[in-house]
């Protein structure tokens, strides 16, 4: 079997963590007798500099022809003052649309030996094991009309959702809960937003088809507070685009670093897999970034994008062994300890694969 992977290193630390993840992915696949064909393509600020667009047509074509795409990060401060169509992040939004992905899946689990890395008391952090199911195609990020009139001092964004958009992400979340601890927490703002009233109604309807799963509804502000106070009570968080973006970053802080979090964007075609962190341009080229999120995204690519659970589990176990051995990148290192580089951590994971 040969896997075709479209690699999209992107901007900032993206090339470094992508290189680390691909090395681990290749080692895990080799141990299973699986060959990997990787093609590298431009996206984000790198594409803007080379092609004048944040998402070249050839990148889209390569992703559609691959089994899955692995993205590093997008974002370049050099384009901060540009109009929306010339921002690196626009390339990512367009790519998600071109691939037809609608569900962003972001696991957050306390890693062995890292209970003290985040702001939570160790006994709270140790119980953290949840996954966020974030809807990707609707909401404020894509709603029309939208406008910005800086001279007139007025801006407009629109928050639309349809029953179909809510139903399909809810169905995935309930199926996931059936294989986990059987609890879905649907997050909305139904006391203020009509869109959330629809969201709550549709999610309740979907829940009736999954009697083994318990459904609870929670307002987004209350949920944010509960994530800090009692993170271990959550299993599957189901929410819309903006709320999911915010809450999954909060979950990353709770486990110790955004650098630990992986994600998968799934739909009918090839999936898009990427670490949750941004491009961190001040760290670029220094070999100090945390590659764990990218490495675990490669594991999700194998399991959720290619139907290969064995090498995915091998990668996840290898990351846990390296952390248990005490290796830490700079974002996780305790004061007075010497962190390892991005490349050194990845090499240790490859060695742990045996």
Short description:
This protein is of the alpha/beta class and 354 residues long. The chain has helices spanning 14-30, 45-51, 57-65, 88-99, 122-125, 163-178, 194-207, 220-229, 241-255, 292-305, 309-324, 342-352; strands at 2-10, 35-40, 68-73, 101-109, 129-135, 147-149, 154-156, 183-188, 214-219, 236-239, 262-267, 271-275.
Please, could you describe this protein's structure?
This protein has twelve helices and twelve strands. It is of the alpha/beta class. The longest helix has 17 residues, at 14-30. The two termini are 21 Å apart. The mean pLDDT is 93. Helix 1 links the parallel strand 1 (2-10) and strand 2 (35-40). The chain has helices at residues 14-30, 45-51, 57-65, 88-99, 122-125, 163-178, 194-207, 220-229, 241-255, 292-305, 309-324, 342-352; strands at 2-10, 35-40, 68-73, 101-109, 129-135, 147-149, 154-156, 183-188, 214-219, 236-239, 262-267, 271-275. The strands form two sheets. It has a ten-stranded mixed sheet, with helices on both faces. The protein has a two-stranded antiparallel ribbon with strand order 6-7. It is globular and about 50 Å long. Helix 1 (14-30) packs across helix 10 (292-305), helix 1 (14-30) packs parallel to helix 12 (342-352) and helix 10 runs antiparallel to helix 11 (309-324).
